Amino acid sequence: MIRDAARxxxxxxxxxxxxxxxxxxxxxxxxxxKMGELGFMGMMVSPEYGxxxxxxxxxxxxxxxxxxIDASASVVMSVNNSLVCYGIEKFGxxxxxxxxxxxxxxxxxxxxxCLSEPEAGSDATSQRTTAIDQGDYYLLNGTKNWITNxxxxxYYLVVAxxxxxxxxxxxxxxxxxxxxxxxxxxxxxxxxGIRGSDTHSLNFNDVKVPKENRIGDDGFGFTFAMKTxxxxxxxxxxxxLGIASGAYELARNxxxxxxxxxxxxxxxxxxxxxxxxxxxxxxxxxxxxxxxAWEKDQGLNYDISGAMAKLKASQxxxxxxxxxxxxxxxxxxxxxxHVERLMRDAKITQIYEGTSEIQKIVISxxxxxx
Length: 370
Ligand code: CAA
Description:
Layout: H1 2-14, H2 18-24, H3 29-37, H4 56-69, H5 71-91, H6 94-105, E1 111-114, E2 130-133, E3 137-148, E4 155-161, E5 171-177, E6 183-188, E7 199-210, E8 214-215, H7 221-257, E9 259-260, E10 263-264, H8 269-297, H9 303-328, H10 339-348, H11 356-368
Parallel strand pairs: 1-4
Antiparallel strand pairs: 2-3, 3-7, 4-5, 5-8, 6-7, 9-10
Helix pairs in contact: 1-4, 4-5, 4-7, 5-6, 5-7, 7-8, 7-9, 7-10, 8-9, 9-10, 9-11
The structure holds acetoacetyl-coenzyme A.
Acetoacetyl-coenzyme A binds at residues 75, 79, 113, 115-116, 122, 124-125, 148, 168, 222-223, 226-227, 229-230, 303, 352-354, 358, 361-362.
């Protein structure tokens, strides 16, 4: 049911205008609003806080369907669900949940997750943004980069160094609201793919953050970021899976109507074998994604399975979209056939929420433990 609902929504509401939004870097504001009304923005949040109370498998299914059509919309959904809502529900207190989680989960407000900095991308412990304890508030200063929903969000989870001496144990995370004095949104990034999503740098100049907006005990911020990102990676793996399966479906359909050498091109083994490889890889990725989602739902540790799912699904997204363009030939290289966009969108899945190289660090450290 959830898969069908997401599929229908994607076809009816996201497909119209997706090329135009990509071309003009237009944020899918109306579509995201509708996704909120349908419950896609807080799928796993408990109904007590306005969410759908669904499991991670359901979320992965919905993410896959939305991403088949519009990966710009799905990254908005992914960040709101698996980074912002999850982080606040899992680690926030009652105040955070009632004030911030409820509007985020119901789609009335949008969230952003602010960890990356000009010099702290993969090397996330090297935070330069500072939050200095001033008694009943922290004074926040610094710059965050490549922030998804950067200009459109209402609430921002901002990671900052509160005690440099303590390194990663002196990092905290805060909920910051748009419009607070000293909080400036930088220019929008002009991106290769996911161009409908809204990516900005953010500047914090002496922003006063009330003490009650810190999540968790003092020094919990880095653990918060790592634990939250483990689940975020399942969301991005599902997105990659959707990009791959969307491109595969387009290529399969095209190969059944496009003729060359007197027959539909799917009758040429060169094309049929490509499709066979594409689907086999997609299925392999899908089971890794579902395994990670299932482990999360079972309360098991999913750090490694989430990293494996993202590593594999993003590789598959890249390979499959390149092949989908190839099967489309010249038509694959122009916008109206969609596959060139999916190929551009695929690339980011190997970069954000931890590059493929970072996933290999997480996996290899895990497998070498004890
Ligand atoms: N859960 C809990 N704690 C964890 C953890 C996890 N999954 N992973 C690491 N930690 C803890 C470690 O135990 C350690 O704590 P102790 O010293 O108390 O044991 C601490 O965190 C530091 O860990 P490491 O020593 O392993 O740190 P490191 O510097 O070697 O690297 C890393 C860790 C895994 C490479 C990490 O820096 C990392 O994940 N980097 C990638 C960051 C990332 O994914 N950024 C994405 C940005 S968000 C985004 O893209 C969102 C978007 O807009 C789409």
